[in-house]
Amino acid sequence: MIIDFEESKLDLYLADICIIGAGIATYSILSVLKDTPARIIIVERGSMNTDIEKEQFKTCEITGHPFAGHVAGREFSVGGTSVTWGGQSLPYTPIDVENKKWVKNSGWPISYEEISRYYPDAERLLNLDEVPYDVELHKLQRLPKLDLDESALQCHFSKWSPRPNLKNDLTGICAHSEQITLMQNAYCIQLIKHENHDKINEIEIQSKGGQRSRVKADKFILSAGGIENARILLMSAPLIRHHTFVGKMFQDHPTAQVATIEATNDKKLQAYFNYFFKGETRFLPRISMTSQYQQQEKLLAATAFVQFIPPPGGLFEALKGIYRSFARMKMPAKKEFYNVFKNLIEINTLAKTASSYLVHRRIYTPRSTARLTIMLEQEPITESYIALSEKPDPMGLPIAQIHWTFTSLTIETLRRFCAEIESNFRKLKLGEIKWDAWIKKSDDEIRNNLIDAYHHMSSTRMSHTIESGVVDTNCKMHGVDNLYIAGSSVFSTTGHSNPTLTIMALAIRLAHYLKSDLITVHDE
Q: What is the rounded CA–CA span in Å between residue 442 and residue 267?
């Protein structure tokens, strides 16, 4: 069932489970709980359509390092960021979860196996090809192996979902269920704690027009995103009076384009580093720092990939825009079709592209500029945080204040990683790396050129105790018996991998934990 809170007249809603947010984590949870007898109500602040006023509601106060992702990296609508993201998926590795003795506050309170066992289920939800991530890249590409120093660097790949927009999947579950209700246009403004117990009794919701109501449930799941999860908790002051880590150790992946690669053989460079397909799944080759090198040199995780950027306004760029729209289940804008027809004079330049795809299932981008992009891990530090601002949003609620920062170890990791890439690339004879001028300058200059990757993580981190985090190993909030948190906000440390696959794996893990509890209660 799907309802609009703005059209509702009820003062109170009742459920067994109330989920706040209707994004990727919530869809993952529903994939497990949809066939249980539990009455589930999902409270989503957005609607089925893109909100034309959304930027007013997403804007945060930025007091630390520049952080564009507070607007560009969030989506307040049913389906969450899946309606706009590209669908890139990459699991964490064991070292991403382990305690790195040289990195303070690192490590998860659960084992890698506790996460990785749910990756196959997450991949199925994303319709990804089942090829294991540890398959050697060159074998998939059907190319000779690159001669890298494998003690320092490894070749591997990420996968891109052919259908990354999960909105229709999520609404399909809700529309065909009598037990599950999706309520759109309902803003959660407060989690209300039971006076005499360590549990939440209800939440208060509000529409844009000011209408208020409550939702009572046995269990609540906060699944509103890496920034909003912390903001909602911070707005529920009585609930967190014993907590000191809500919003603390906020993390992202510091990222930058660092160099241009002038290819010796453009076709060969693209064969190794541009996208290729297996079935419907698109693969992106990557070069990453090995766990051995991280341990040996006491560095953070780092990954690199090459972006082959077509000339602006050209035919390839126009076709790429149409492909992205269809992949996200959106009708391309008229302007995108116009751009294709306008550039049909360039059709002869696509001959190599067509040949590369039809013969080898590889993408070849004609007349492109090869830009090397690096994405980095950051240390978990309390100086990087989310708090409440004194500035209100359009509903009069405090917006989030984001103070994102990272240490010199991130910058040192970037320097060392670049040096390893340069020495290895020289041996490969694929081209010459022309570093951007800033990469050779001071730490401050490097810091100024690093941007966020729209990966909002760790604001309600998982820990063994309330003294070092917000949720326990089952994603239940320390000291609160019936509140669980789903999403990247529970990540303890972040590695270099894109977070979505791990978000989904942890959400599926949480759902199985709740399902076992539901079955026990039902049997009794």
A: 35
Is residue 15 within 8 Å of 215, Cβ to Cβ? yes
Distance CA 109, CA 463 (A): 6
User: In the chain, how long is the greatest CA-to-CA distance?
Assistant: 74
Question: How far is residue 385's CA from residue 489's CA, in Å, rounded to a whole number?
Answer: 12
Q: Quick check: helix, strand or coil at residue 477? A: strand
Structure tokens at 155: 């070749």
CA–CA gap between residue 413 and residue 116 (Å, rounded)? 26
Cross-strand partners of 402: 62, 386
Strand partners, 308: 370
CB of 121 closer than 8 Å to CB of 508: yes
In three state form, how does the secondary structure of 405-436 look? CCCHHHHHHHHHHHHHHHHHHHHHCCEEEEEC
Spell out the alpha helix ranges (H) of 278-369. 291-297, 315-327, 334-342, 351-360
| Alpha helical stretches, state H, 127-239 | 137-141, 167-175, 228-234
For residue 437, which amino acid is it? A
Check if the beta carbon of residue 252 is closer than 8 Å to that of residue 452.
yes
Buried b (16+ CB within 10 A) or exposed e, 468-498: bbbbbeebbbbbbebbbbbbbbbbbbbbbbb
- For 135-166, letters b (16+ CB in 10 Å) and e give eebeebbebeebebeeebbbbbbbbbbbbbbb
Question: Which one-letter DSSP state was computed for residue 76?
Answer: -
Contact of 218 with 16, CB cutoff 8 Å: yes
Span 13-43, pLDDT tens digits? 999 999 999 999 999 999 999 999 999 999 9
Q: Write the pLDDT tens digit of every residue in 494-512.
A: 999 999 999 999 999 999 9
pLDDT of residue 329: 62
pTM: 0.92
Question: Do 514 and 484 contact (CB within 8 A), yes or no?
Answer: yes
Rounded to whole angstroms, the Cα distance separating 518 from 524 reads: 10
Is the Cβ–Cβ distance between 337 and 358 less than 8 Å? no
Q: Can you say how many angstroms the Cα of residue 258 is from the centroid of all Cα atoms in its chain?
A: 22
Q: Which is nearest to 75 in space by CA: 355, 454, 370?
A: 454
pLDDT reported for residue 518:
75
Tell me the β-bridge partners of 197: none
Given a contact cutoff of 8 angstroms between Cβ atoms, the answer to whether 404 and 452 are in contact is: yes
Cβ–Cβ under 8 Å, residues 487 and 366: no
Cβ count near 58 (within 10 Å): 21
CB 291, CB 93: distance < 8 Å: yes
